[in-house]
Fold this protein.
Amino acid sequence: MKRTLLALLVMLGCYVAHAQQRDTLAVVPAGADSLAVERGVDSLAVGRGVDSLVTPADSLRVEPKVAPPIPVKPVPTLGKESVIDTLPTGNPALSIILFNNNTWRYVLSEEYKRDSKVFDDHWNTTTTNPYYGVAVESLPESTVIQLVDSLESYHYPYKGNMSSRYGPRRGRAHQGVDLPLKTGEPIYAVFDGKVRYSQYSSSGYGNLVIIRHNNGLETYYAHLSSRDVEAGDWVVAGQQIGAGGSTGRSTGPHLHFEVRYCGQTFDPERIIDFTSGELRRSELLLRRRHFSIYSKFDQNFDDEEEVAKQEEAERKAAAAVQYHTVRSGDTLSAIAVKYHTTVSRICSLNGIKSTTTLSIGRRLRVK
Ligand SMILES: [Zn+2]
């Protein structure tokens, strides 16, 4: 075992030295048998994060160039404690992580990642969304996000069919996708990154892990039965971060999975094919309008009118909301008559039963 590792390290040393002579970084996928395989070599491209928010491109309206959508296969799965060592390379930006099954993978060095503003800006380990105050209107019209660099570190969070997709659902915004599972099944980090939040969230998420990634995105893993990482932990794609469950506001074991950019959600299917488990592309052209709850990845509308119309309808619906403050002598049926609605409608709007005692001063939604 030790000799194998030693031999592997010697080979790696040569390999890295060789790669550096050419002034480029050769990247190979994890797996000792792939040592001999040299893949497409580029200089190491590092994900652009929040920094890229401030671009003058808005006024220019130049269509950004984005790489064609070539799917990226997931890296091999890692167990909970499979990383046995991290080794430096001749390149300060890169480390090698060694796994207990004798495979290895290049990752960005932690020192290098620490220098990245991505892990400083709006960093908060106690709140689910630290980007309050960042209005969607302040985001650029479009942003090119390099989802994975040449290391192609990507893994699906959970592979399976969705029971619920991104979009409006029963009058609420469903800001992620739901993937039914059996309680206890492993959930994996999607990209390399740092755990920003790992807590039980009382806002409905239940046990929630949020990871900030080198590429500037955040991924949310909710309703977990257990969490295997803590805020501040560095994680790599394919590392188990917890187990699926049904904690929080959930009607059965499933993973609720969200992807956010600067606190704004967008359809996770824009980047991940949950059935095949592949990343759809290595570069994503993210438009501001994609942050609308009505914007789905398979909607082929390029006209913003469609979205604008739907948003207008939503605004009108929101404006039509009415409340009634309970006064002495009020009954649900009297209130229902007054507002031309029904008792059952009022009950469902407020999550109460027809037998619930109405306390004076309580605000009831009636429309
Ligand atoms: Zn959900």
